[in-house]
Amino acid sequence: QPARGVELVEEESGAPGEEQRRWEEARLGAAALRFGAKDAAPSEPKYQLVLEEEETIEFVRATRLQGDEEPSAPPPSSGDQQKESIRAVRRSLPVFPFRNDLLDAIANHQVLIIEGETGSGKTTQIPQYLFEEGYTQKGMKIACTQPRRVAAMSVAARVAREMGVKLGNEVGYSIRFEDCTSERTVLRYMTDGMLLREFLSEPDLGSYSVVMVDEAHERTLHTDILFGLIKDVARFRPELKVLVASATLDTARFSAFFDDAPVFRIPGRRFPVDIFYTKAPEADYLEACVVSVLQIHVTQPPGDILVFLTGQEEIEAACEMLQDRCRRLGSKIRELLVLPIYANLPSDMQARIFQPTPPGARKVVVATNIAETSLTIEGIIYVLDPGFCKQKSYNPRTGMESLTVTPCSKASANQRAGRAGRVAAGKCFRLYTAWAYQHELEETTVPEIQRTSLGNVVLLLKSLGIHDLMHFDFLDPPPYETLLLALEQLYALGALNHLGELTTPGRKMAELPVDPMLSKMILASEKYGCSEEILTVAAMLSVNNSIFYRPKDKVVHADNARVNFFLPGGDHLVLLNVYTQWVESGYSSQWCYENFVQLRSLRRARDVREQLEGLLERVEVGLSSCQGDYTRVRKAITAGYFYHTARLTRSGYRTVKQQQTVFIHPNSSLFEEQPRWLLYHELVLTTKEFMRQVLEIESGWLLEVAPHYYKARELEDPNAKKMPKKVGKTREELG
Ligand code: CDP
Ligand code: MG
User: Fold this and answer.
1) What is the pLDDT, as a whole number, of residue 84?
2) How far, in Å, is the centroid of ligand 2 from the Cα of 151?
3) By alpha-carbon position, which residue is closest to atom 6 of ligand 1?
């Protein structure tokens, strides 16, 4: 059966090359015919890229993203580029002509805002210029923050290569649970969260001569908090240089925040991008994506494709579908290299997206919005944008955080389109209508600080001695309710006392680079004598839902393998079981393969576990094992997650405090069992509000681990007695 939307004519004779050529000519001819179809107005050409009428996706051209250069220059072929020396490449970047002006501006101003189109060389070049200029003499370091781990790693690798040093020597990166730096490291690329943690050990950032807050327009929670802290440090460290780099036009805001710091603009260099929209909304955007990629591949001139999807699962599914269809089409189409890129992708796989496309082939990079501004991939001519991203949202009233697939903002959509015009005139195909763009997309993305829980950050600020959070210097303040709830939760976890001051356990919790609830769980493992097991659970939870592997053609086997790991008690114990068996197999990759478990997720869990184990001493938790008494493990988990509880009522699961309707995720080991009381690791809103990683508990444990939070009467069995009308008066109780 041919793949949807691509109908191929069998060619009987001719050499493969010849066949290929003739076939392509036929395709291009077909596309050209449709392009000039009668009903398409000349100003608004229709793009019907595929060959089989009823199953094509029709795009209509509506706008053009203006470039500043005429598309006269042919795209540099990857072969040529490889031959160019690194020096030449560096000199070719838009930032290069401004090198000296930029260094002058930095010398003359303490804070400088730098604005420049993505790919102009801000991230890779500016720290090198500073290095060359001597900013790293006398043991001083330069920090450059990135909102994303992948960006920090890949950029550091690139810069190390450009400087001809080994990654981890002069140039390194530091991300949570992974430190690739050494004594010699003077250029440190790090996630914004890591620089935030640096304040704990070095509150004045005394060993840094320059701090560059990069990708500032992303407005991640950590970047926003950094702004406030760095502004403060800069006041009493006049020699510290602060650079705020941004891809887009929010620079006026940054400038105003930093007492009207000057803005240095690096002129853009971009080719025009034609933007096409679908005529009607697409019901299944993943399917539509796959069809469109093949459409572009068979009908469009050379040039690589960049597809924006929302997350790992989706990306893996899309890649699998694409590879599957390409395999079925076989030699009838030119080679299509399908490459995923997302946060948890191992670095060797990440490196592949930067390798030049072999002649005659086409590359399709399927990415999260990491490729929007953080990473620049050479050779992209086509962008396919379904218009979604995964976004956190937070309801301070219920304290529920959820990660949902939502329409991206217009600003994002335009950034995405811009990626098509870096090397030549490009095309951006949007899998939504022009009307939707105009009327349904928000102008910009709401800063993360306004749609996330703040427990983590509040704990950190408290440990930095910042007590008056209401008056902290926020670029955009978080909702008052969110801040209050964070304080309440930290109080309930015992991290703050009734005066809002950090307690001894609170100080320990801040030492661990994980969420307060997870820290609390780890601290509680001391009491329940099961820190070995809890470390494993914590590590497995932090590799995030990518433990099991479920290939399309072996679904039954994979599901059986997963069920074989089930233990009574719930998903946390299943995770523990998987990890323990892997350890017993001698960390065997064969074992992973046979049991449909992702080796790289387990390897990462092993790294995380080692890191956490190394921190145990600092928080005064000894190593101990429960020797199979899993009740102790479950109690320790409950001690951290008593906030995330639900009970079964006649109308399904309701969260204990807020009475929200929630559902067990179908992948959970408890999906069939439906225990009366449970706790969940996280809520994910897809079609419903799903609880992911669910553990069966006893209501009595809640009184044991959090007597200040739960009252016996709210834990009465709803079937035995009528539900009390009013529950959850913590706020009043806290007074
Ligand atoms: O930060 P900005 O977006 O201004 O640019 P950059 O990340 O410094 O990228 C400058 C150049 O380095 C681009 O041409 C990228 O393609 C290249 N680069 C790369 O080849 N590999 C990386 N990991 C990062 C950048
Ligand atoms: Mg950059």
Assistant:
1) 57
2) 8
3) 121
